[in-house]
Amino acid sequence: MTNPIRLERAGRRWRALFAGHLIADSDDALILHEEGLNPVVYFPRGAVSMEYMSRTDKTTRCPYKGQATYYTLLMDGNLAENAVWSYEDPIDDVADISSRIAFDPKMVDVYEVDEKVARTIDHHRDEDRARVDEVVKHTDTGAGYSQGERWRQNVADPES
What we know:
- It is a single chain.
- This protein is mainly beta.
- Helices cover 9% and strands 38% of the residues.
- It contains one helix and ten strands.
- The chain has one helix at 123-137, and strands spanning 5-9, 14-18, 21-26, 30-34, 40-42, 53-62, 66-75, 78-86, 101-103, 109-112.
- The strands form three sheets. A four-stranded antiparallel sheet has the order 6-7-8-9, with no helix packed on it. A three-stranded antiparallel sheet has the order 1-4-5, with no helix packed on it.
- It is globular and about 65 Å long.
- The termini are far apart.
């Protein structure tokens, strides 16, 4: 039996958006190509907001990847059952996806970031993505600086 799976490192940053909230953001994503299926983006667990997910009893088994465990996503009253999965102990051929997180694209918007604009066919999603991407660009990376220029101050400095 030949393995119909191919893994590649993503060349750009990928994000996942659920209910208008950024729940995953990484420039270290892997893309899994499986014969006859759409590519699936796997995010490093540390780049995913796991606090909005709870593990379910659902598991599935793939002869090429191993056993998947599933999570339900709950945020702001929006529920997506079994919309998230992970292979905790995958088959050796795809060991790189171990403990990474993937999202069902029917329930979670997963997209490649274009620094100018995140493009999709759905115009409303474009607006949501652009708004989220603009906020992320101006958010401190944790290293003391942001990806974008500082926003102009919109209030006066407090008096000392």
